[in-house]
């Protein structure tokens, strides 16, 4: 019951936030200096041409009218037409979304594995040199942002020791039998492991670059929390029962220590998704972020609007999921 | 027959002052021994050393802990853990923090039976149900499925007691098991522990600062001061005539149930000075 | 007692000096760029394109770290690039710090409706993901150095405001503040003379960290070509160029990358090191 109520409240606030973002984005973008229409036309276009095209995109109307038209469209699933490609924004954005989702989730999985391993190893060998080394590595990983890790990875595993692909999402010459844009997922479902390996090889480095800072945060927070938990009475009691250190950490301490880490990881995961913008650019990965940068460079207002809204939607959904997960994992909330 | 025998056990803070000074004591099978002393006298440290849960900041510098004739300190860690888990148990001080908040009660009682002693889950659960009934918990099946936060402090302490007796251990260390409880609940719990001990014939190492408690449940006691055993006698002898001046002062400082109006006598400075000199002489002798 | 903790303490001191040393060197290079750079950073010479660094066969004397595809000297471009990087760090960092710290100080010390207003503003800002914010801002302001600085200030002032507010609040509750007020000092006077000096260490630490962030933001935006639009050398721009010719001329990417890496690391280590130094004040 408590979870349902939480869900209802969170859905409502999500809606409010999204509407707020939509309003802000719409009006902020309209104060852009310079006329995007002029940039679309070949040099030597007349003022009449510009006026005609402006009318076509509704840019000659007053701001409030434009907003009304836009909202009416959004409600019906029409997010406008991209100025540069002249395709519906919704199609463009949804076409790129799966790539970015797959990349973010792979990065999250890597971060949880790396950070979790660092925290568990550090706790198991706490007070010794191993823990010191893990702390130093965590500190390094936190000081340097994903963009630089991406470049370092390109040099290490793209040039020095060419193990992985450094650009794109799949090798272009490959024949793709896919019906959706979730390549990683669909290749598995179709048991096309050759394609799957190729896709993973393309995703590995961008995902790792995104994962490194988050892994460091998880490693630090979880280790801190684990070490505190290991001093609690129920852990001591479990030790007298004959369990070894590793077993005590995994069975008694991990679950309780992971709860406080979880909420922070949620916030950090939204930062990771934000990081895809530049990382996709760096690895020429055809996702939303790469498209966002092109849209900014080309001043493609409808497209920017659509992408920003979609990102905002992803962020709020992630926060929602984290809150629900927290409620499910915490028995105190579950039964309250 | 002696089940636990501690010989000249010395423990200190790593590179710091000693916490236990050549402590020796025996616990016979089925016997209840009280460990008394002021806070910081090292009484809990003895229980922790026996159960292998000394904090990482302290180290054992000498002596033996013989459990059924085998020196625990000479065993490899995994073997030591297994042996302690199979024959000993702990009743902790604070029932509110001694149960894992994210596991149900059932597995917390049965885990040792299943994982260490190799029982089937069904047998272990049946055993847990019987034990909960024995510690007078109504509706054991509901409690086995509950999470700790759904139960009261007194209930949780009963559960911890039941859990300690689950594997029919030879020795239980009770580390101030009533200190964190309400005065009204204290008496019930004390009675419960004493009754369970008598029925199961388990040896008990009872750590407490309350001589009144000792007089009710223990047969023998050790008085500690600054990590040193200053007196080791039977409870009857002790309450009739304590042999050491410090124990006598400690006894005088304890409120008497027979005469609450008598007032409390603080331990006199002269006695403290004398026992300190004794500790110092002991350290010189050991060095 | 020589345990891990004291080892780390000593390493922390070393870390501080190494970071400060690298940043000082960089500042000198930026200030004296026209005199210390061995070549003109803009001079192209297609006959000297993609020369390797000095220790590799085929290197040309004078071009220590090699040349890019247009024959421009990599070392000279890195030195001149330091000017843009440090300028953004200094200007964006300082403005962000001034605005954020002032608002935080006012909110934390004056409390009341001022605090209410500023805290609400911070909350709203925090709800807006920084990446969206920067995409929007750059889209609105158009590419360029000024846009980058404005974007950093607009997005990051909350970093200072939040921490300084909490710190000023804690200091405001202390006795010495009350006694200064009793001694007849005005509210703003007390804030500047009594609170500010005690919050200053925190501000310095945050400023150092912010400068590192500014450097990386500038590099990223010049990497995607949204920073300064001329041929002026920037590290991000060099990295973008090096990324395309990575298999033919690795040095075009590697040297600016190392410089950027060390600079970002130094700012952050300097900040962390200072935080440790100021520890009693910060906690």
TrEMBL record, chain A:
Its main location: membrane. Belongs to the binding-protein-dependent transport system permease family. Keywords: Cell membrane, Membrane, Transmembrane, Transmembrane helix, Transport. This is ABC transporter permease. Residues 97-326 form the ABC transmembrane type-1 domain. The chain crosses the membrane at residues 7-32, 99-120, 147-166, 199-222, 257-283, 303-329. It comes from the Bacteria.
UniProtKB/TrEMBL annotation, chain B:
InterPro entries: AAA+_ATPase, ABC_Ni/Peptide_Import, ABC_transporter-like_ATP-bd, ABC_transporter-like_CS, P-loop_NTPase. Keywords: ATP-binding, Cell inner membrane, Cell membrane, Membrane, Nucleotide-binding, Translocase, Transport. Transmembrane segments: none annotated. It is a peripheral membrane protein. It is found in: Cell inner membrane. Residues 4-251 form the ABC transporter domain. The keyword Cell membrane applies. The keyword Cell membrane applies. GO terms for molecular function: ATP binding. Pfam families: ABC_tran (PF00005). Belongs to the ABC transporter superfamily. This is ABC transporter ATP-binding protein.
UniProtKB/TrEMBL annotation, chain C:
The keyword Magnesium does not apply. The keyword Transport applies. Residues 82-271 form the ABC transmembrane type-1 domain. It holds the Pfam family BPD_transp_1. Keywords: Cell membrane, Membrane, Transmembrane, Transmembrane helix, Transport. It is a multi-pass membrane protein. It comes from the Bacteria. It is found in: Cell membrane. The chain crosses the membrane at residues 12-35, 86-110, 130-155, 195-228, 248-267. PANTHER family: OLIGOPEPTIDE TRANSPORT SYSTEM PERMEASE PROTEIN APPC, PEPTIDE ABC TRANSPORTER PERMEASE PROTEIN. Belongs to the binding-protein-dependent transport system permease family. This is ABC transporter permease. It comes from Paragemmobacter amnigenus.
């Amino acid at each position: 019951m408590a979870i349902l109520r939480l869900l209802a409240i969170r859905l409502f606030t999500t809606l409010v936030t999204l509407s707020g973002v939509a309003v802000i984005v719409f009006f902020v973008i309209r104060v852009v200096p310079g006329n995007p229409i002029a940039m679309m036309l070949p040099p030597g276009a007349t003022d009449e041409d510009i006026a005609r095209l402006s009318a076509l995109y509704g840019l000659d109307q007053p701001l409030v009218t434009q907003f009304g038209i836009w909202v009416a469209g959004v409600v019906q699933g029409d997010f406008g037409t991209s100025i540069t490609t002249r395709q519906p924004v919704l199609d463009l954005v949804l076409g790129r979304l799966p790539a970015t989702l797959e990349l973010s989730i792979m990065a999250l999985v890597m971060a949880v594995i790396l950070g979790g391993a660092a925290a568990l190893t550090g706790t198991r060998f706490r007070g010794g040199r191993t823990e010191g080394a893990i702390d130093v590595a965590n500190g390094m990983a936190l000081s340097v942002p994903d963009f630089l890790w991406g470049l370092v990875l390109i040099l290490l595993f793209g040039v020095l020791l060419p193990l992985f692909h450094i650009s794109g999402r799949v090798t272009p010459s490959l024949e793709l039998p896919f019906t959706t844009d979730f390549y990683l997922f669909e290749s598995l479902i179709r048991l096309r492991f050759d394609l799957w390996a190729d896709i993973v090889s393309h995703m590995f480095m961008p995902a790792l670059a995104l994962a490194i800072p988050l892994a460091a945060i998880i490693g630090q927070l979880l280790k801190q929390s684990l070490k505190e938990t290991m001093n609690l009475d129920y852990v001591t009691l479990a030790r007298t029962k004959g369990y070894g250190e590793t077993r005590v950490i995994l069975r008694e301490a991990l679950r309780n220590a992971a709860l406080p880490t979880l909420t922070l990881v949620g916030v950090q995961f939204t930062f990771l998704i934000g990081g895809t913008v530049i990382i996709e650019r760096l690895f020429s990965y055809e996702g939303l972020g790469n498209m966002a940068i092109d849209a900014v460079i080309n001043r493609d207002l409808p497209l920017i609007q659509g992408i920003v809204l979609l990102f905002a939607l992803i962020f709020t959904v992630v926060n929602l999921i984290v809150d629900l997960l927290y409620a499910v994992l915490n028995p105190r909330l579950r039964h309250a | 027959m002696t089940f636990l025998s501690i010989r000249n056990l010395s423990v200190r803070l790593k590179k710091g002052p000693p916490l236990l000074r050549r402590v020796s004591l025996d616990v016979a099978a089925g016997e209840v021994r009280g460990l008394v002393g002021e806070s910081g006298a090292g009484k809990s440290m003895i229980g922790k050393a026996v159960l292998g849960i000394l904090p990482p900041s302290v180290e054992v510098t000498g002596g033996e802990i013989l459990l059924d004739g085998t020196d625990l300190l000479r065993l490899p860690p995994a073997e030591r853990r297994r042996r302690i888990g199979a024959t000993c148990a702990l009743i902790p001080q604070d029932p509110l923090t001694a149960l894992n908040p994210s596991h149900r009660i059932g597995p917390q009682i049965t885990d040792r039976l299943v994982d260490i002693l190799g029982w089937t889950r069904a047998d272990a659960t049946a055993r847990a149900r019987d034990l909960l009934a024995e510690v007078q918990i109504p509706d054991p099946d509901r409690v086995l499925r509950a999470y700790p936060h759904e139960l009261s402090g007194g209930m949780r302490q009963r559960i911890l007691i039941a859990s300690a007796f689950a594997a029919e251990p030879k020795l239980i260390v009770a580390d101030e098991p009533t200190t964190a409880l309400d005065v009204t609940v204290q008496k019930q719990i004390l009675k419960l522990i004493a009754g369970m001990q008598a029925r199961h014939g388990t040896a008990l190492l009872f750590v407490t600062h309350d001589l009144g408690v000792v007089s009710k449940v223990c047969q023998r006691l050790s008085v500690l001061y600054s990590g040193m055993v200053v007196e080791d006698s039977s409870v009857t002898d002790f309450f009739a005539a304590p042999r050491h001046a410090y124990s006598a002062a400690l006894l005088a400082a304890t409120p008497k149930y027979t005469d609450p109006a008598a007032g409390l006598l603080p331990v006199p400075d002269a006695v403290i000075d004398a026992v300190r000199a004794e500790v110092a002489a002991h350290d010189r002798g050991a060095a | 007692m020589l345990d891990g903790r004291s080892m780390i303490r000593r390493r922390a001191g070393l870390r501080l000096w190494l970071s400060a040393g690298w940043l000082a060197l960089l500042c000198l290079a930026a200030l004296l760029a026209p005199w210390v750079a061995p070549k003109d950073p803009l001079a192209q010479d297609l006959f000297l394109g993609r020369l390797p660094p000095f220790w590799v066969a085929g290197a040309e004397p004078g071009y220590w770290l090699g040349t890019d595809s247009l024959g421009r000297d990599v070392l000279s471009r890195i030195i001149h690039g330091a000017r843009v990087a440090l300028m953004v760090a200094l200007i964006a960092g300082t403005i962000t710090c001034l605005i954020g710290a002032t608002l935080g100080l006012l909110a934390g010390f004056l409390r009341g409706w001022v605090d209410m207003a500023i805290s609400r503003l911070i909350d709203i800002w925090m709800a807006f993901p920084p990446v969206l914010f920067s995409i929007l801002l750059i889209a609105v302001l158009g590419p360029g150095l000024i846009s980058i600085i404005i974007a950093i200030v607009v997005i990051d002032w909350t970093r200072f405001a939040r921490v300084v507010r909490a710190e000023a609040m804690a200091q405001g509750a202390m006795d010495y503040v009350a006694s200064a007020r009793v001694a007849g000092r005005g509210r703003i006077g007390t804030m500047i003379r009594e609170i500010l000096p005690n919050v200053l260490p925190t501000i310095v630490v945050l400023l150092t960290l912010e400068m590192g962030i500014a450097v990386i933001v500038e590099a990223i935006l010049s990497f995607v070509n949204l920073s300064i639009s001329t041929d002026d050398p920037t590290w991000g721009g060099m990295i973008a160029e090096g990324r395309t010719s990575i298999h033919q001329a690795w040095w075009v990417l590697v040297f600016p990358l190392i410089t950027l890496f060390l600079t970002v690391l130094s700012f952050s280590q300097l900040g962390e090191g200072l935080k440790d130094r100021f520890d009693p004040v910060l906690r």
